[in-house]
Design goal:
alpha/beta, six-stranded antiparallel beta sheet, five-stranded parallel beta sheet, 18 strands, about 25% strand, globular
């Protein structure tokens, strides 16, 4: 049956004839192709561990059979599954080189998985990951071909992948990285970034440090509106990417707003649950985040504190919903609240129907009362 709108498009008859003439693939063949490109799990080998700074390592992952890994878009991440949980890490290598993925991981104070990886993983070890995912990548149709990237700390990892993609693909895209670090010793990929930008007019890299050494000749301080203007000039509606520590996001947005830059031309990488959910305007006043409540899920009842994300509390009990971003974006950890009240953080990208049906994203949902969950 021809769709009623099809005749409005030139060449619709040719398209319909092409579809009608195709030989359907066997379901098993289709399933193999989907799994090869979009695997739920990959069991990989750590081929190399590179020390980038005192607190940062890059782990090169390969297939045990030496084959290519699934394709990804520069800026995407994979989830690393270990110790009964998972964490997302951006792929810092180039999408043009699928014989490996590089994951750049910085130690986080109190970080459960980042510190485990940095301290214990060695070449030859096995790691289980998800397939690539995430929306923090360049879309030329909407983002244009002249972009600015504000990075802080290990938030430079997706920018590194984007820059390598431009170089390996010979892309004409203009890319300006403004990269903030605490000190010169904390700058990741410094030598490679400077080498790639040298002699390439479409690539520019500016390093900014807050604690400069005596011989530092570059810009210093924070990524203020004035400094962004000095380095990048008028933004003129260019797409601005932002990735780094959680504190960078509201700060960068304030600076960009002060420049009159439209919010729709700013893209943030999802980067974890809120550090303090009680600081959000809709956290109910007088509600103690350290107070205990009960959670019932899959026939089990246990206690947790109000200030702990539901996903973390569930995993502590061996209940492990599918999850990836742990930032409220991907929706894989979506659960339904059958009874009780939760605080759903601002980071959650809920469906329009979710509040009415009681659904939330467990990674950024906090139980305010005793709750029953459909997980």
């Amino acid at each position: 049956m021809t769709h009623s709108l099809a005749p409005l498009f030139d060449g619709h008859e040719d398209v319909a004839a092409d579809i009608a003439g195709r030989v359907p693939r066997p379901p098993a063949d289709t399933a193999r192709r989907v799994d090869a490109l979009h695997p739920e799990r990959l069991h990989l080998t750590v081929d190399e561990v590179r020390t980038d700074t005192q607190s940062t390592r890059t782990f090169r992952l390969v297939r045990t059979d030496g084959g290519d890994l699934p394709p990804f878009l520069a800026g995407q991440y994979v989830g690393v599954l270990t110790d009964g949980t998972n964490r997302p890490y951006a792929i810092s290598s180039s999408p043009a080189r699928l014989d490996h993925w590089d994951l750049t991981v910085r130690r986080v104070p109190g970080g459960r998985i980042s510190n485990l990886l940095v301290d214990t993983v060695r070449p030859g070890d096995a790691l289980t990951t998800t397939g690539p995912m995430g929306t923090f990548h360049h879309n030329p149709l909407f983002h244009g071909e002249d972009v600015v990237f504000l990075a802080g700390g290990s938030g430079v990892a997706p920018a590194m992948s984007m820059i390598r993609d431009i170089v390996d693909g010979g892309l004409a895209r203009r890319f300006h990285l403004i990269y903030g670090s605490r000190s010169a010793d904390d700058i990741l990929f410094r030598e490679e970034l400077d080498t790639l930008a040298a002699g390439r007019p479409n690539l520019r890299v500016d390093h900014v440090v807050t604690e400069p050494p005596a011989d530092w000749a570059g810009p210093t301080g924070f990524l203020t509106a004035a400094l962004i203007t000095t380095l990048a000039g008028p933004l003129d509606g260019r797409m601005v990417y932002v990735c780094g520590p959680q504190a960078l996001y509201p700060y960068a947005l304030d600076q960009l707003a002060a420049l009159g830059h439209p919010r729709r031309r700013v893209r943030f990488e999802a980067n974890g649950a809120p550090a303090d959910p009680t600081a959000q305007p809709h956290w109910p006043g007088g509600t103690d985040p350290s107070g205990e409540v009960t959670v019932t899920a899959r026939g089990r009842t246990f206690t947790t504190t109000r200030g702990r994300p539901l996903l973390d509390a569930l995993e502590d009990q061996g209940i492990r919903p599918e999850s990836a971003c742990r930032s409220g974006e991907c929706g894989l950890c979506r659960v339904r609240v059958l009874k009780g009240t939760v605080h759903t953080a601002e980071e959650a990208r809920l469906r329009l129907s979710d509040p009415g049906s009681g659904h939330t994203h467990a990674c950024v949902a906090y139980p305010l009362t005793d709750v029953d969950l459909d997980v």
